[in-house]
């Protein structure tokens, strides 16, 4: 069993009509051995497991061996702008899934992909200007701090 230190929350950086098959095709196109996420939550709130938790996914470079990666389908709005466009069903399912994962990995820190960016000014947090990417387009640390 892997030593899980993080539960990383992502968006797929796609529109909400993107299917699981489309995601898997994109991972294959990139030449990845494994998907980018262990779990994906579609707009209808359905949780899809793409990879067993014992396997390493391609979610956060440099942290994949110690992370479980979870994504919601979405994160891109009109004009290709980053946006939190989770549906109410996605929000419910994400919370349920993250709660289960936190119980399974109680020492794991739940945070967004953007929170893995370096703290360039050393103030103890990743400021907006320090983020490498916006994913998951909301503050997962704050939203799931009660889990």
UniProtKB/TrEMBL annotation:
Domain N-acetylmuramoyl-L-alanine amidase: from-to ranges: 2-129
Stored Pfam families: Amidase_2
Entry-linked SMART domains: Ami_2
Gene3D superfamilies in the cross-refs: Peptidoglycan recognition protein-like (3.40.80.10)
GO MF annotations, alphabetized: N-acetylmuramoyl-L-alanine amidase activity
Origin: domain of life: Bacteria
GO biological process, one term: peptidoglycan catabolic process
CDD domains: PGRP (cd06583)
SUPFAM superfamilies: N-acetylmuramoyl-L-alanine amidase-like
Protein name in UniProt: N-acetylmuramoyl-L-alanine amidase
InterPro entries: Amidase/PGRP_sf (IPR036505), Amidase_domain (IPR002502)
């Amino acid at each position: 069993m892997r030593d899980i230190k993080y539960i990383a929350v992502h968006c797929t950086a796609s529109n909400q009509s993107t299917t699981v098959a489309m995601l898997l095709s994109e991972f294959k196109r990139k030449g990845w051995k494994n998907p980018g996420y262990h779990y994906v939550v579609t707009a209808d709130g359905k949780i899809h497991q793409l990879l067993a938790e014992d396997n390493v996914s391609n979610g956060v470079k440099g942290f994949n061996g110690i992370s479980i990666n979870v994504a919601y389908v979405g994160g891109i709005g009109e004009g290709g702008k980053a946006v939190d466009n989770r549906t109410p069903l996605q929000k419910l399912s994400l919370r349920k899934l993250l709660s289960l994962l936190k119980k399974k990995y109680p020492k794991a820190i739940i945070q967004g992909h953007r929170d893995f960016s370096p703290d360039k000014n050393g103030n103890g947090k990743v400021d907006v200007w320090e983020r490498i990417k916006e994913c998951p387009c909301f503050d997962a640390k704050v939203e799931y701090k009660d889990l």
